[in-house]
Specification:
This protein is an alpha/beta fold. It has helices at residues 2-8, 18-30, 37-44, 61-76, 88-91, 113-120, 148-161, 173-178, 183-194, 209-220, 234-246, 264-267, 280-296; strands spanning 49-55, 80-86, 106-110, 130-133, 141-146, 167-172, 200-204, 228-231, 256-258, 275-276, 303-307, 311-312. It is built from 13 helices and 12 strands.
């Protein structure tokens, strides 16, 4: 029993011949043996698991891209990944609830600041290594942000400088109802105010192109089109383009359309959409580097970085 235990625990401190190790491993494989991870964690103090907290109820490719990038880093480093899927109301909305999860060596939060805040209220959770991909900052944690507000501000100024005066920000109704400080909304509003122009918002029922098309069609019914639409996501931009085509409004002249996210459907659209690209690779690379450092030294001082965002101009805007 002791020999089998030492082999299955991958102990290198005990001298065992390669033939003995091979026999034990073959026997374990024959009977389908799986190590007891709870017992291993209790013995070593490590679970070899990294937990990713993120919303799973929003139909955007952004979350899939982040999940894919984190999964690659985790596998590459010899860890296992556990995804804690959250509803938006728990991740960053009004529902204060901490999800149940297996103990992990470190946490990565993506767009899950409210849930992480509730989790950190328990003193036992304050020192668990944590990296936030977002803007929320916590003690004994690192934050890797991307400059959404600055990019939205820059895009709005570009539209103004191209001659636009009536620029409408198309965004989900839940943002208008409950998130006045949402970064795209803020960057757009601040740029419009700086230019002495009125900020105009158009709320849509959800983040799909179909819901956006319906909302923009209603807004255009009997009304002249604005000179530009700045959209919350590329999906919303695609819905806006559909509505403009139905109304006989040409893009980009007289109406420009700008999106966010650099989604495949935006690049492949018959009128490729100008967009703000989320730097997924740079975000996850930095987050993973910092998480490994924090696992090694949990009480290190908090760090923050705000990564610049690429702005991509395509056929839906005037250059």
């Amino acid at each position: 029993m002791q020999t089998a235990s030492q082999v299955l625990a991958r102990s290198e401190t005990v001298r065992l011949g390669p033939e003995t190790r091979q026999k034990v491993e073959e026997a374990a494989q024959m009977v389908g043996y799986q190590p007891n991870r709870l017992a291993q964690a209790m013995r070593s103090g490590r679970t070899n698991v990294i937990s990713l907290w993120m919303p799973v109820d929003r139909p955007t490719i952004t979350f899939l891209r982040v999940l894919n990038a984190v999964s690659h880093k985790v596998r590459e480093s010899g860890y296992d990944l556990m995804v804690v899927g959250l509803d938006s109301s728990v991740a960053y909305g009004s529902e204060a609830r901490v999800p149940q999860q297996w103990p992990a060596d470190g946490l990565i939060s993506f767009d899950a600041g409210r849930a992480i805040g509730e989790f950190r209220k328990c003193p036992a959770n304050t020192s668990i290594p944590l990296v936030v991909i977002g803007l929320e900052q916590f003690e004994h944690a690192d934050t890797v942000g991307w400059d959404v507000r600055g990019a939205a501000h820059e895009v709005t100024l570009r539209l103004v400088n191209s001659g636009c005066r009536r620029i409408v920000h198309v965004t989900p109704q839940w943002v208008l109802d409950g998130f006045p400080l949402e970064q795209r909304r803020r960057g757009y509003s601040e740029a419009m105010t700086e230019c002495g122009l009125e900020a105009v918002f158009l709320g849509v029922a959800d983040e799909t192109a179909s819901a956006t098309e319906q909302a923009v069609n209603r807004a255009l019914d009997g009304q002249p089109a604005p000179e530009a639409f700045f959209c919350f996501t590329d999906q919303i931009a695609v819905g806006t383009l559909r509505a403009l085509r139905t109304s006989g409004v040409s893009v980009p002249d007289p109406c420009q359309v700008w999106g966010y996210g650099n989604y495949p459907e935006a690049a492949d659209h018959s009128t490729p959409v100008s967009t703000i690209e989320i730097p997924h690779t740079a975000l996850v690379d930095q987050a993973w580097k910092w998480l490994l450092e924090r696992i090694d030294k949990p009480k290190r001082p908090a760090r923050f970085v705000n990564i610049p965002i690429p702005i991509i101009e395509r056929a839906s805007t005037l250059k």
